[in-house]
Amino acid sequence: MGMKILVLGIGNTLLTDEGVGIFALRELEVQYGAREEMEFLDGGTLSFTLAVPISECDALLVIDAAELCAAPGTVRSFEGEAMDAFLGANRKSSVHEVGLLDLMSISRLTGHWPQRRALIGVQPALIEWGESLSPLVAASLPEICTTAARIIERFNHSWRVE
Description:
The protein is α/β, with parallel strands linked by helices. 38% of the residues lie in helices and 18% in strands. It is built from six helices and five strands; from the N terminus they run E-H-E-H-E-E-H-H-E-H-H.
């Protein structure tokens, strides 16, 4: 069997732009369809139970709203050590029960933090009650999906090279 890629969307779809990771995950799932080597997981607002699927994947792609100190709808990706550094530097309070930093720590302790990993962060415009994305963040969905596709291709390429 080849590499297993876990695409993890994080967020709360009841809090406008906080749900961007889930909205992007749904679009990617439609684009990629049912591929044996890919798992699409709605991580909701995170929990320790996500440590299990993370431990079982070869590559991890996380999509979430993030404080990027940028214009609303800005999309940035962080790969490998850059992802770890970004998570470590952004210890802000979160609406999530467990933060990505906590999951990274658990995974590292158990020796299951994927070598191939990336985070796509999206600057929210609005986080308040609402079941749809703000126009600026909704407009960034195509860029999020394109960025995700490039990262997935790099994961696949690096796997084939080894």
